[in-house]
């Protein structure tokens, strides 16, 4: 499909390394290398033809033409990865993150590569600018779409109010909650599943102990990167056995060869 010189409604994830310019050149190189590695691993799960990646120097903007929900899971995985890196590595950097859903015009740059301009990407940058270090925020337009895609999705967000940019343009902003923030909000949903007639079906999550979940998460992360954490968390609430957990997670892996590689990991649990 020809996508150049067209305007598309797409999800834009904007990321900015906090205080990047204040570091020495050597420190900038280490920070950027760590940042780029984490981002590259996370984006492997998204179809390359649907991704337009723009290096901003101190961060990255991703314009994604696929399902809006895909960007959310990638961003959550990245946020958690940045938190972990900040806690253990010598570079000790943090990242602000923002997601918007809006119009973006795809153009061809001087090197013949796809580039983007438009309000969709500008608004994503504004949403990102409101974030604290290692905080993930989304716009109202993005929230309205993603919250309708699953009954669990609204529980991932908290409305934090109206923010004004330097041009006094107003934005309704939502925070994507971290695990500990949303624990009480979705505690009931972790052990129950609602079916069509309103019946509540308890989930036997005790069958999936923490040791197994960590092993499965590590196996999946080797294939799809940081978003493995959020996918395992979602799948565990829908699974009552190890076999079911593996099958659900295998559906998230794009290639047959990697699916088989992941499923073979089940034999190494014992």
Q: In the residues, how many domains can be counted?
A: 2
CATH superfamily of the largest domain: Nucleotide cyclase, GGDEF domain
Largest sheet: 8 strands, mixed
Mean pLDDT: 81
Radius of gyration: 19 Å
Tell me the helix content.
40-55%
Low-confidence stretches: 182-207
Strand content: 15-25%
Structure summary, number of beta strands: 10
Could you walk me through the main structural features you see in this protein, from its secondary elements to its overall organization?
The chain has 270 residues and is α+β, with helices and mostly antiparallel strands. The chain has two domains: 6-182, Alpha-Beta Plaits (2-Layer Sandwich), CATH 3.30.70.1230; 187-269, no CATH class. Helix content is 40%, strand content 24%. Strands 1, 2, 3, 4, 5, 6, 7 and 8 form an eight-stranded mixed sheet that branches. Strands 9-10 form a two-stranded antiparallel ribbon. The chain is globular.
What is this entry, summarized?
Mean pLDDT is 81; it is low at 182-207. Helix content is 40%, strand content 24%. It contains 10 helices and 10 strands.
Q: Characteristics of this structure?
A:
270 residues; Alpha-Beta Plaits; 2 domains
List the helices and strands and how they pair.
Elements: E1 6-17, H1 25-43, E2 51-55, E3 59-64, H2 68-88, E4 95-108, E5 114-117, H3 119-129, E6 136-139, H4 140-146, E7 157-164, E8 170-176, H5 179-182, H6 187-190, E9 192-194, E10 200-202, H7 210-224, H8 228-236, H9 242-250, H10 256-264
Parallel strand pairs: 4-6
Antiparallel strand pairs: 1-3, 1-4, 2-3, 4-5, 6-8, 7-8, 9-10
């Amino acid at each position: 499909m020809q996508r150049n010189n067209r305007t598309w409604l797409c999800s834009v994830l904007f990321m900015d390394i906090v205080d990047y310019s204040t570091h020495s050149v050597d420190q900038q190189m280490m920070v950027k290398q760590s940042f780029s590695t984490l981002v590259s691993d996370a984006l492997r799960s998204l179809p390359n033809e649907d991704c337009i990646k723009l290096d901003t120097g101190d961060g990255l903007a991703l314009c994604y033409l696929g399902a809006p929900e895909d960007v959310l899971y990638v961003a959550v995985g990245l946020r958690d990865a940045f938190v972990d890196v900040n806690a253990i590595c010598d570079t000790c950097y943090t990242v602000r993150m923002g997601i918007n859903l809006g119009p973006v015009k795809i153009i061809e740059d001087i090197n013949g590569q796809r580039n983007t301009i438009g309000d969709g990407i500008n608004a994503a940058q504004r949403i990102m600018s409101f974030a604290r270090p290692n905080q993930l925020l989304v716009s109202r337009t993005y929230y309205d779409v993603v919250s309708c895609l699953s009954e669990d999705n609204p529980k991932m967000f908290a409305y934090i109010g109206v923010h004004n940019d330097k041009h006094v343009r107003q934005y309704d902003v939502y925070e994507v909650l971290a695990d500990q923030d949303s624990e009480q909000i979705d505690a009931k949903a972790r052990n129950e599943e609602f079916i069509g007639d309103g019946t509540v079906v308890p989930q036997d999550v005790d069958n999936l102990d923490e040791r197994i979940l960590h092993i499965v998460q590590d196996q999946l992360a080797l294939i799809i990167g940081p978003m493995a954490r959020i996918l395992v968390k979602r799948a565990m609430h829908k699974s009552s056995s190890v076999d079911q957990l593996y099958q659900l997670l295998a559906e998230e892996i794009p290639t047959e060869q990697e699916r088989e590689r992941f499923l073979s990991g089940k034999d190494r649990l014992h």
